[in-house]
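Supplementary Methods, section 5.1.

A reviewer requested that the exact input to the structure prediction be made available. We therefore reproduce it here, unchanged from the version used in the analyses.
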Amino acid sequence: CVKNVLNGIEGGLFIAKRGLEANVEEKIAKGWDMLERNASFLKTLVLDMLDYSKQRPPEYEDVSISGLIAEITDFVGGRAAKEGIDLVVDIGSAVDNVRLDPTRMKRALLNIVANAIEATDEGGRVSVVVTPKADTHLLITISDTGKGIPEDKLDTIFEPFFSTKGSKGTGLGLPVTKKIVEEHKGKIEVESQVGKGTTFRITLPLRQS
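The structure derived from this sequence is encoded token-by-token as follows.
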């Protein structure tokens, strides 16, 4: 994975250099685009690796879950609109304040929402629903109407370096998400049907002991 990215950066540099030498704008633009794409992927890969390898407890704060979800949907909303995907958020009024590490939980949820948008075709739907679960927990349900995950792959999607996106994925996004959720004493579950979509359910305690 890293080798492929480095090869992409090297290829982008080569094309951009040839473009500069020949003063061909098209080659310069192509090389620069390759550099940008591979540098962005490398950044994501490094951040995922750091997150996965970190052994530190969450830095808990009292957080508005509606505010946290709004930050995530604001970040990916433009992409969803561009792809013609309906992004829907439903947060129960009975649930808002929860104690968690906002930076890490935002990363965990963003991984799933971004994956859902990527897996969904134009005209599809991605939903984020937050509901109370008893008096002690909240349930975050993220669903899409995308391609779905084959049943024989469901047991492996949380394993490091496994990706349903081939060379486009780092293979660490979902393992990082699972690690963060479990560090919060929570639980993550997934259901999927090929051709119909995928649903992730994350259960988190409202307070931390």
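The first helix runs from residue 2 to 22. These observations are discussed further in the main text.
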